[in-house]
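Re: that chain you flagged

S.,

Sorry for the slow reply, it's been a week of failed gels. I finally had a moment to sit down with the sequence you sent. For the record, here it is as I used it:
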Amino acid sequence: MEKLLLITCLLTGTGLFAQDIHFSQYYNTPLINNPAFTGIFGGDHRAMLVYRNQWMTVASPYTTYGFAYDTRMMEKRGNFSLGTGLGVYRDVAGDTKMGITNVSLSLNGIIKLNSTQHLSLGVNGGFEQRSINNSSLIWDKQYDQDAPEYYNSTASSGETSDYNGGFNAGDINAGLAWVYSKSTRKLVNDENFSLKIGAVYQHITSQELKYGETPDQLWGKLSFQVESNVTVNNSSLSFQPNLLYQRQGPNQEILIGTLIRNKLGFDSRYTGMLRSSAFLIGLHIRLGDAIIPSIGYEIPNWKIFFSYDANVSKLRTASNSIGGFEVSLIFVSPGKYIAGKGHSARFN
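Prediction finished late last night. Pasting the structure tokens below so you have them in one place:
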């Protein structure tokens, strides 16, 4: 019957080899992707809320949500600073309510190579709690053998394993990143160019997953990420192309696309007191799986972003091309580099 549980999980939730918590707006969730991006942003404090809902037409939906916060410390110590962060994420999937709760702390050493380049090395550690509820599962022994159409929910399933028992496991991840960032304040639009390249290896401890009596090891995951921000000179437009590649065991994921940002209005050049808003649109592709249009709006310190996964894989027959809806809200407190003449930002 354990094979039946595995099949049921695959059809109604997620596989026994459960996928990691992840989001299509990977450019808005840097801490869950790579601890080496902790503290790498244009400001002093950053907080993020994100919610995702997918596969509503196939079975009980996946629901994923999370909170993250990061900042920098020790910036007055010359060419070194320390990025620190906290992430809390929850994922619930399918009829069995297969769930992951992840709480982790991130530390990132950021070394200033020169006025435009930084190198960072980050580690992330915490714990995961995994659980499952098999009360909604239907077993063959709960059907009357003489009248197969008759189902008795109170009948014994005949199963000896206790799948309802949750378990905890530690988790450690490590990554590195190289960041180039240059910015000059202009009246119409800042002339920005940045490039971030990162790599991370997750699940170094190779935690054990044990639903029932048979344990399985969680595969390690290797990821690469590239992000850039390029403004169009003497224009209110900027482009933000990005790429994420992840490989975990025999599975891989490739996400690629770009955001287009249109600045609305002007910033005050000298005081920094007047700051404009911006409108963003984007299109990303998860190769072989989904097309992901997105839209966002920025006001000073705040950004709200919506995206939608339109399923284009073989599953579209069952999903009716309906994938997942995702929304994120990001707050960034401005740093000392936001205002003032010249505006040579640490990161943008």
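What I noticed first: Confidence is low (pLDDT under 50) at residues 1-18, 337-345.

Talk soon,
D.
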